[in-house]
Amino acid sequence: MSTRIGIGLLGLGTVGAGVASILQTPEGRHPLIADLDLVRIAVRDRNRTRPIALDESILTTSPEAVVDDPAVDVVVEVMGGIEPARTLIMRAIAAGKSVVTANKSVIARHGEEIAAAAAAAGVYVLIEAAVGGGIPIIEPLKQSLGSNRIQRVSGIINGTTNYILSRMAEEGADYNAVLRDAQDLGYAEADPAADVEGLDAADKIAILSGLAFGGPIDRNGIYTAGISTLQSRDVDYATQLGYGVKLLAVAESMEPDPSHPTSLPLAVSVQPTLVPNDHPLAGVNGVNNAILVEGDPIGRVMFYGPGAGSGPTASAVVADILNIAGIRQLKPADGNLDPLLAASSWRACHLANKEQTSQRNYVRFKTENAPGVIGRIGSCFGDHNVSIQSIVQLEASDAGAEIVVITHVVGNGQMSAALKAIHAIEGVLSLDAHLGCL
Amino acid sequence: MSTRIGIGLLGLGTVGAGVASILQTPEGRHPLIADLDLVRIAVRDRNRTRPIALDESILTTSPEAVVDDPAVDVVVEVMGGIEPARTLIMRAIAAGKSVVTANKSVIARHGEEIAAAAAAAGVYVLIEAAVGGGIPIIEPLKQSLGSNRIQRVSGIINGTTNYILSRMAEEGADYNAVLRDAQDLGYAEADPAADVEGLDAADKIAILSGLAFGGPIDRNGIYTAGISTLQSRDVDYATQLGYGVKLLAVAESMEPDPSHPTSLPLAVSVQPTLVPNDHPLAGVNGVNNAILVEGDPIGRVMFYGPGAGSGPTASAVVADILNIAGIRQLKPADGNLDPLLAASSWRACHLANKEQTSQRNYVRFKTENAPGVIGRIGSCFGDHNVSIQSIVQLEASDAGAEIVVITHVVGNGQMSAALKAIHAIEGVLSLDAHLGCL
Q1: Do B330 and A318 touch (CB under 8 A)?
Q2: Are A73 and A101 in contact (CB under 8 A)?
Q3: Secondary structure class of B243 (helix, strand, coil)
Q4: DSSP B96
Q5: What average pLDDT does this structure show over B173-189?
Q6: I want to staple A134 with a disulfide (CB 3.0 to 4.6 A). Which of A24, B25, B271, B298 is the partner?
Q7: A20-24, A191-195, B9-13, B397-401: the lowest-pLDDT one
């Protein structure tokens, strides 16, 4: 028994063309794909040449016409951007249609509103392609790890910055030089801000956090530091000390706050972070992504693969369509949803105050090349209860010295206070780098 | 709206106790867990002390009583072994009950019979815990990768052998010494054959192959070589050449055979294999497992984590229970199954003849320490169209020399013929090792 399912596509860019290509070539893929009919596609310009052959009659420049088409059962939104994507998704839900989207910006900002509308309408909004490109991570979080108390989700979830950081480490190259090269090669956008400032990774960790911990957080409150001010010397020093530098996104559960016992506090951040060479994330290079999930009783699992690109992202989009197609075979009479696939919130969560969270730190000071400075810095950290793992003078000349400190896990409040005090020490010229460290 | 679901457990060993422990402590896990009632448990000995507190009245020594109990909706088989596990699974299916099992031996050998019975009865048999311990791999293959044409599934799927190989590499230690130590530490069984001879890995790759390619293969026809005859010098030589040695299980699709066009030929094997240091599987050490899936259009994704142990395996078992509980919320009227979750076969597959498959090879010869032997070996490979990547003399003394050859990808038939011919060359004393190579 099979049911044909009409697919309406909003957008025929890289990902949209990848989706159409899979649907046009079902041989050798899961047989359910042959039940999917691509019935309508919204494009910006009907006359553009396309990388795939398509029946021109299904193209329209009106995305509303796709959403409203009675032959469209599932709306696939791969146009990107906040609007009109958000409005079109809401319109599809209101029409009782399930939605598949790769749009992390919309989900990170309007996920609550969209999820509530979908639950009320009895439809699914599936988002596997929004995080990690082709890597199955949304579905495992929803359907394979629910028996765990998740402690931490961390990962390399932006391919552009990982490509830049990998080349900086391999070649000892400067950030700006590698960025220009990445732009020429199409790995970075002309306006790279969303990637290099960590905003894309913040969208994605907001989504992962919501699924891992069962409740949404305020996307705009996530501590976010990018790589645009990262200096190649810090990448070099990290290498010398046995680390790689990655733009790491982390969401971690904290002890409940007694004054706020019904909501789970989470420490969520995006920042350049030193990763020890023997850590599973250290070997993730180039445009690859990887997400590490830690929980009880599973321990630590990692999901690794291509974090972007037409094919991988389309693979994830079609996986979501297949899941909706699979569930439809059950023909539930009353609009009930599978609670795992629907993944509605089940717990209140909130962002902890950054000063109350903790981490290991890498800091680099410029100092005068004079005896006693290292000792004074070390003492000052001690006075503020900041426990140090190593303090190393890495370069020294008449112009001054560079001192790199790696701390143990310390409260960010203590760390800020210590850094402020160190700034006032005689012989300390400047704090030139402050990164996270695993 | 929620539906309470009665769980019957067959077995209360390491995994069973882990499952019970999760069900007893639902706080902080997916809320659906609170809807699961552990109503009956079959144990071998009622009087044994247990690591967890349990209502003694739900224990029974009769597994049939658990399966037949009308309060049991889902039967969880974690007793292991072929019988009576197979019969009990079939009995549960006949009673219209879905089954969750961690039993790779039963599924690898009787999967077809069990799947057919489950489809006929309209119930699920879920097996996430059968491969890769806690790593979500069964569910991603079924529900997240269906849009792909899978080309290859390969992985490190036996924790015991990976532990032994990791220690051999780190310590330069001998196989037998590390095995004894692993037995003392509980990482290897008193009778280690199932692990060290590759039989456990062959069970698991048979299961992964069936899901990845859509059809079952003959478990008993899988080419299987274990690590019990692996010599530490080959691990050392591999290290010198930039490789690690892993017990690798591989299932790979081949070009359809024109004489057999309706069935997909697969090359499936388990053997010690050299993995280049920059390959994602190279960093998988100790009792960890990892599975690499390659397909079009996704490229390459990897799933990594703890391959065994009470907690991780229980995490996978309870994930399967949750999936059944989630689907039950839909109350399908007519016993239809979600085809992705049910994962019935959709294509005929068969094992290709080993002589017709190809691979890279690592071989080590003992030869006389005489000039010209390397040249004669190289020429002989060339005469048999075996293309060589490197040929190195690694040790030489009056007693003889050791020559290590790494080939490019060559047909196993050609390779066998070349090795036979080399055996007859003057100065070649013996072929002492023959491993795969990525």
Answers
A1: no
A2: no
A3: strand
A4: T
A5: 93
A6: B298
A7: B397-401
Residue of chain A with shortest Cα separation from B316: A144
Measured between CA atoms, the residue of chain A closest to residue B33 is A147
CA distance linking residue B406 with residue B361, whole number of Å: 6
Residues A271 and A131: their CA atoms lie apart, in Å, by 17
Mutate to test the interface with B, among A144, A275, A324 (most CBs of B within 10 A): A144
3-class secondary structure, A345 = coil
Is the peptide bond between A297 and the residue preceding it cis, with omega within 30 degrees of 0?
A: yes
A254 close contact with B: CB closer than 8 A: no
Q: How far apart are CA A194 and CA A178, in angstroms?
A: 17
- Burial group, residue B238, by CB count within 10 angstroms (0-12, 13-18, 19+): buried
Q: Which helix (H) or strand (E) holds A264?
A: strand A263-276
How many angstroms separate the CA of residue A81 from the nearest CA in chain B? 24
pLDDT tens per residue, range A286-326:
999 999 999 999 999 999 999 989 999 999 999 999 999 99
Instruction: Answer whether residue B410 shows pLDDT above 60.
Output: yes
pLDDT in tens, B360-384: 999 999 999 988 999 999 999 999 9
Q: What pLDDT is stored for residue B334 in this prediction?
A: 64
B30 touches chain A (CB under 8 A): yes
DSSP states of A282-316? GG--TTEEEEEEEEETTEEEEEEEE-SSHHHHHHH
The reported pLDDT for the residue numbered B253 is: 97
d(CA A271, CA A203) in angstroms, rounded, equals: 13
Which residues numbered 404-433 in B keep a CB inside 8 Å of some CB on A? none
- Give me the torsion for CA of B235, B241, B246, B247, rounded to 10°: -80
Amino acid at A275: V
Q: Any chain B CB within 8 A of the CB of A335?
A: no
Q: Do B319 and A135 touch (CB under 8 A)?
A: no
pLDDT of residue B371: 87
Mean pLDDT of all residues in B300-322:
96
Distance separating alpha carbons of residues A370 and B14, to the nearest angstrom: 61
pLDDT of residue B1: 45
DSSP string, A366-417: EE-S-TTHHHHHHHHHHHTT--EEEEEEEEEETTEEEEEEEE-SEEHHHHHH
Stated as kind and residue range, the H or E segment containing B305 is strand B299-306
**Range in A215-219, A394-398, B412-416 the model is least confident about:** A394-398
**What number is the ipTM of this complex?**
0.95
Is B319 in Cβ contact with A297 (below 8 Å)?
A: no
**CB-CB contact of B207 with B101 (8 Å):** no
Burial label for B305, CB within 10 Å (0-12, 13-18, 19+), is buried
Give residue-wise pLDDT tens across range A58-83: 999 999 999 999 999 999 999 999 99
Distances (CA, A) of B430 to B231, B360, B377, B400, B425: 15, 20, 12, 11, 10
Cβ neighbors of A224 (< 8 A, separation 6 or more) are A197, A198, A199, A201, A202, A269, A270, A271
Contact indicator for A37, A62 with CB cutoff of 8 Å: no
What secondary structure, in 3-state letters, does A25-87 show?
CCCCCCHHHHHEEEEEEECCCCCCCCCCCCCHHHEECCHHHHHHCCCCCEEEECCCCCCCHHH
Largest CA distance in chain B: 82
pTM across the whole model: 0.96
A297 touches chain B (CB under 8 A): yes
Which domains does chain A carry? 5-133+310-344 (3.40.50.720), 144-305 (3.30.360.10), 355-437 (3.30.70.260)
Collect all residues of chain B within an 8 Å Cβ-Cβ radius of residue A295: 315
Q: For position B266, what pLDDT does the model report?
A: 98
- Which residue of chain B has the CA closest to A20? B147
pLDDT at B186: 87
> Catalytic residue positions of A?
204
What is the model's pLDDT at position A329? Answer: 83
